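A reminder before we start the practical. When you read a complex entry, don't treat the lines as separate problems. The point of joint prediction is that each chain is placed relative to the others, so the output describes one connected object in space. Small molecules and nucleic acid strands, if listed, are placed in the same frame. In the example below there are two entries. Take a minute to note the order of the lines before looking further.
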Amino acid sequence: MTETRLSLDLQADICWIPLVQGVVETGAPVMGLDPGKTLRLALAAEEFILHLSRTAPGTRLTLTLSREASSVSALFQFESSPEDLWAMNLTAASEISQDLDQGMAHMGLLLASRVADRFSIALSGRTLGVTLFQDIIYPDIEKAEVPSTPLRGTLSAQACSDPADISHACALTMALYPEPLYPKSFRTPGNIIDRISQGRFHAGLVKDEAGTAAGMICWQIPSRRTVEFYGPYLFSKGDGIAQLLMDHLINQVARTEAITLYSRAATPDLPPGNFEPLAALAYKQSNGQKETRTLWFRHLREDMGCPVWAHPVLGPFLKGTYDRLFLIRTIREYKDPGGGRPARSLLGTRLGADKQEAFIRPMLDGTDIRENIQRHIQLLVNENYLNLFFTMDLSIGWQAALGKDLTETGFEPAYVLPYAGESDKVIFHYVHPHA
Amino acid sequence: MSTLMLDRIVPRHIRNFEPYYPSKPDSVLMSLFGVERLHRLNNNENALGPPPAVHRVIDGFKAEMVPVYPNGDCFDLRDLLAAKFHKTQDQFLVGNGSCEVISSVIKAFCVKGDNIITADKTFAVYEWVAEFSGVEARLIPLKDFGFDPEAMLDAVDDKTKIIFVCNPNNPTGTYWDRDTMTGFLEAVDQRCIVVIDEAYCEYVDNPDYPDAMQLMETFPNVVTFRTFSKMYALAALRIGYLCSSPDVVDMVRRTHIVYSVNTPAQQAAAAAITDDRDFILATRKMVKEARELLCPFFDGLGIPYLSNQGNYMMVHVPLSDTLLYRMLMKRGVMVRTMTGFRFPNWIRISLVQAPVMTDFINAFREVLSTAQK
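Here is the predicted structure of the whole assembly.
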């Protein structure tokens, strides 16, 4: 699949809204988005321009429409104060509705963030990049019947990008493994196939000499120095299938920039001796029970150590973790330097299907961040999300400083993911007060 | 908005190439891991240090010589090499470590669209230089831990310009004997250059080990790489060389940077190869004694290992090699993890003096005991 992107340089003015609508409505279907989703993306883009026209008229901006693996995105790049983005908080609707006069200016932003399937924000110097995503819809598949024919001849592992092989392997996985052990996108393998074709997702299959699939391993690269894997999934009984899959995975990523290889949902077929336990997480289930899941990781090369920022309240957790994992870190206490801290913060929230999980990450600092965290907790608990996670990047001082706010609002540090950011990330798990 | 659009400037094959970050200096590592001494068993260095003649060269190097450029193409050293190997001076090119001559050879023979052939689990620099030069690296799986001649021949096509054979192979220590190498060269039939990397040749004393210096008399497409880093312990000076037929060297010379080898390196290398017999024997003895300590130790633990040629051995450890590395570093022992060589959960250990090997054994035993708790 070739990369397609459209770019438009313009000014924040309502007179350009029809043009922006036209670009999205014409371009997104060519990039594979269905009509309904195209309209939603066009609406989100329109609302975003409307917001900028009201809050920062005349601002020069670039709109880039592009196909990104299994989604189409609209990226807005402009110079602006990030403070204006507070209305993209998941909780902003109630604030705006309470003060319509003050909130109307931000209504467009609120709508844009709600109409999009996801959004992300990046700040580079004074340039702000806001990306609105619409995910492409793919057809569901059924579970496959598990074959009973024995494997023949020598088994070998190979990279897989054949749509039929991938679809069949996803269907076999669904038949043989419970849902938490495979990504939801296995139900819609077209998504996987598109992401593989763009190098955003990877799959390895072990086959016998007759070409029968005996197992699969999958992985993706969520950040520059981490690789997350899923599996190993075994479709047949046979010695060494799991180890062949693991060797294939490790050999494929061993000479990349990645340092940490991890899984949040490895199957029980993970062969021993390859990975280190990172943490045991108690996931709350919809029936009120808790299920413990072990997170596994390994490094792909020698650990050279790195500095991390931390609030003192996290010191014992970090020291204990680093000692247990033999990781070399210089823990630096972050002290607020004072000065121009914005008033309003922004938290990004990714909501999992079936309300099993919600992931919060800090996007922009602000003096209201503690209250913002509390508002998010309240909303997500009221919406009956079972497991709330908060991700903190220890290479970013202001994020590390949130340790106290998080622990005082009900989060507990659950695990450290080495090198998930410039240094490590800490993932916090919300402990329900009545749990 | 003034943003440097690197995507438009940088070729795709460079953008897709993963940069290599070498390890931090020992002093930093010692501070980070909280140890007061560090046994370096990760780089296959000769722990005996260089031959005595090299000490005299280094000690005698005067500050007055620093402002003067080195000889641009290592004239004196190539003269000595020619005499030692019964060749002519124009058959040698000296580089800033053999990594530089790898780069020169690939630049001389390959353009985008060509390919090189080597093994998947061998010295990584052939693959790296090819890839960041926009040249396809065809990586043939090892067979029984050795290069697979049939599979390599099967991979040759009309775009194949160079085949790299690491003999003995780093890290497995396996080698092609004279018959295998000769048969391979005959089958290649001059269709491309065959580089025989003999970085560890001085450690091999088996009678069936082929000498590329002799083979190139029959097969003018043979290029051999040798280094002063491994046996002669000049790693800090960065000096290596290639030797081939004059016509081949004449082509490589066109892409080879002159003045890249400094004067102390040239003089030390010249000193090292003059009367080196006793030094080589002493080093081989040290390596043999180290093997005699380590092999029974791993046998006793039931841990698989490869102990072939070279001043190193590989061990298949029962835990993640990168975890083992961190645990050993906490005890002041640095080994090489092999995941990066596509041998997950193997480590490579340099074979050095017995007291250091004993320290390694003690540290390894402790670490294994901790990991198994």
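Discuss with your neighbour: Chain B touches chain A through 30 residues (CB under 8 Å). What might explain this?
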